[in-house]
Specification:
Elements lengths: L4 E5 L3 H12 L3 E5 L2 H10 L4 E5 L7 H11 L5 E5 L4 H10 L3 E4 L4 H22 L18 H20 L5 E4 L6 H11 L7 E5 L8 H6 E2 L11 E2 L1 H4 L4 E5 L6 H13 L1 E2 L8 E2 L3 E6 L3 H6 L5 H7 L2 E4 L7 H18 L19 E2 L1 H8 L6 H15 L4 E2 L50 H12 L4 H8 L3 H11 L20 H15 L4 H7 L4 H10 L5
Parallel strand pairs: 1-2, 1-3, 3-4, 4-5, 6-13, 6-14, 7-10, 10-13, 15-16
Antiparallel strand pairs: 8-9, 11-12
Helix pairs in contact: 13-15, 16-17, 17-18, 19-20, 20-21
Length: 550
């Protein structure tokens, strides 16, 4: 049986019995013959919807609307009337009824009206409780070119499949540094799930005073404590059918943690001062930027709650660990910022419909972005792009737009030509000598990455951490590439020279070879592609990828 609770008020016993029998097969339904009897019940119990006849002994359905407006303003009421005049319909809707039906009652139409009313109520509650815009502050989650994000995307798809096939809702724990996009990921999960049309309600645990957390989450009854002048529906009830996102969960007190665990296990809540348990069907997504394992060791976080929440654990990487995603995000934020700020004061950047005149991030700018440590992660990157557009003139966003960054963390441009903003053939050979000079006969550019990985493995005697450091990538990225090329220490083919201890990235080498090939062939793309054993399309793709002008 559906956990939705209804109240039916109808004094005609034959009609009331018929409607009550029909509704009781689908919902929890209480039947009263007078408004007075129903109000006594409504003062003690919480219900989802009331269906009432207009013409009743003593008090009418309009009197019920007036009572609800003062005492339970969010309680939806459907009125039944013996007349179907436009005047009466307008009157009952003006008084606050969610809908009305005329006699004789079509029971199937009544069920559809109930479902439509409940859905409208959920949507209104979602707006009322701070529903976030779909484009969140950290930006959309994308299929970013990073093994970490690709793994997370695969796990999201698996969660959606589990819910579609079995209806089960495993709890999800999202961890990561501040600004990595935990809220965006929670919304992405909700939007892709079968419950995307239901409520997504977010609560930031650090933004609610400790004394108010319990009533926010679970609600309270009128008179439950001093100051409880009315009934309050908790966030678990409001999120029923949808998703409740508990951000910064590591800051909840142990007492609230215990009650939260019970709700997750029993799927029932009890309001403060209430005597009835209310069944809820909610997906729980929790997030934190603190180490919950350490908090458990210190006794500040319950182990049983951690294991219950961490049934599915999604770890978001810091932006500095995914340098290949920075340029993609930067371009996205740039386009969003141009739409957000369509015009600027005189002397500043101005948005134009002409794409050639629109501000762009130069190769120098992309280099700066990808070599900064980004302690504020995705959020800081987004703010940096917006700040660059607002406060720097010109049509090219590059190193000059990043002057405010921490001087100790600013990228070095020793590898960039001082006379050109685009990389030259010697851009990446300055610090590495002749290790990566293009041979006279050319080479296969597609073999460069697996050979560099092989050299890193041989140099590090198979130790993944050291190999990843030599290639300036994360261990996760290295494992992805080892699987891609089916490499290990036994079958690895090395490079002719030892890689520098400071490390060097594959993208740096590829750009160097591309520039050398173009320079050697007088910027002839076809000739350069032949030197690198690439098709013309493969060559064009890489020139566009690295923003190399010909």
């Amino acid at each position: 049986m559906n956990s939705i609770r209804l109240v039916l008020i109808e004094d005609e016993r034959l009609l009331g019995r018929s409607i009550h029998r029909f509704l009781s097969e689908r919902y929890e339904c209480e039947w009263f013959e007078t408004i007075e009897q129903a109000v006594v019940y409504l003062r003690k119990e919480s219900v989802d919807l009331v269906i009432s006849d207009v013409q009743l002994p003593k008090k009418s359905g309009i009197d019920l609307l007036n009572w609800a407006l003062e005492n339970q303003p969010h309680l939806p009421i459907i009125l039944i009337t013996a007349f179907s005049s436009v005047k009466e319909a307008v009157e009952v809707m003006r008084k606050g009824a969610f809908d009305y039906m005329s006699k004789p009652i079509d029971l199937e139409a009544l069920e559809l009206t109930i479902e439509r009313t409940l859905k409208n109520r959920r949507l209104q509650n979602e707006v009322l409780y701070h529903r976030k815009q779909q484009s969140a502050g950290e930006g959309d989650f994308l299929e970013l070119p990073s093994p970490q994000f690709q793994k997370i995307e695969m796990m999201l798809q698996r969660l959606v499949e589990i819910e579609q096939q079995s209806g089960e809702l495993p709890s999800v724990l999202i961890t990561g540094e501040t600004g990595t996009g935990k809220g965006s990921l929670a919304r992405r999960l909700h939007q892709q799930s079968p419950r995307k049309d239901d409520a997504f309600i977010e609560v930031n645990s650090t933004a609610i005073p400790d004394t108010m957390v319990e009533t926010e989450l679970f609600g309270h009854e009128k008179g439950a404590f001093t100051g409880a002048v009315g009934q309050r529906v908790g966030l678990f009830e409001l999120a029923n059918g949808g998703t409740l996102f508990l951000d910064e969960i590591g800051h909840l007190s142990l007492g609230i943690q215990a009650k939260l665990l019970k709700v997750i296990e029993d799927k029932k809540v009890r309001r403060i001062g209430g005597n009835r348990e209310i069944t809820v069907n909610v997906r729980i997504v929790a997030a934190t930027n603190i180490g919950l394992e350490e908090a458990m060791h210190q006794g500040a976080f319950r182990k049983d709650l951690y294991h219950r929440l961490g049934l599915v654990h999604l770890q978001l990487p810091a932006l500095r660990e995914t340098p290949e995603a920075i340029s993609v995000l930067a371009e996205l934020f740039l386009q969003n910022a141009l739409r957000k700020y369509p015009s600027f004061p005189s002397g500043k950047l101005s948005h134009s419909t002409n794409a050639e005149k629109s501000p762009r991030i130069s190769s120098r700018g992309h280099y700066a972005l990808s070599h900064y440590s980004w302690p504020g992660n995705i959020r800081e990157l987004k703010n940096e792009i917006e700040r660059s557009i607002l406060f720097h003139s010109g049509d090219s966003l590059d190193f000059e737009h990043l002057q405010h960054l921490d001087q100790n963390k600013r990228p070095s441009f020793s590898g960039f030509s001082k006379t050109k903003s685009e990389p030259s053939a010697d851009t990446f050979t300055e610090s590495t000598g002749t290790l990566f000079q293009l041979p006279a006969e050319g080479l296969s550019l597609l073999s460069v990455e697996p050979r560099l990985i092989g050299q890193a493995l041989l140099q590090s005697t198979g130790e993944e951490y050291s190999a990843a450091k030599l290639l300036k990538i994360t261990q996760e990225e290295l494992r992805y590439r080892l699987q891609k090329y089916e490499l290990n220490q036994e079958n690895a083919q090395g490079w002719e020279h030892t890689l520098p201890e400071s490390g060097i990235s594959v993208s740096e080498i590829e750009k160097s070879y591309l520039c050398q090939a173009l320079e050697r062939t007088g910027n002839n793309v076809t000739g350069a592609a032949r030197l690198l054993n690439l098709s013309r399309d493969q060559m064009r793709y890489r020139l566009e990828k690295y923003e190399i002008e010909t």
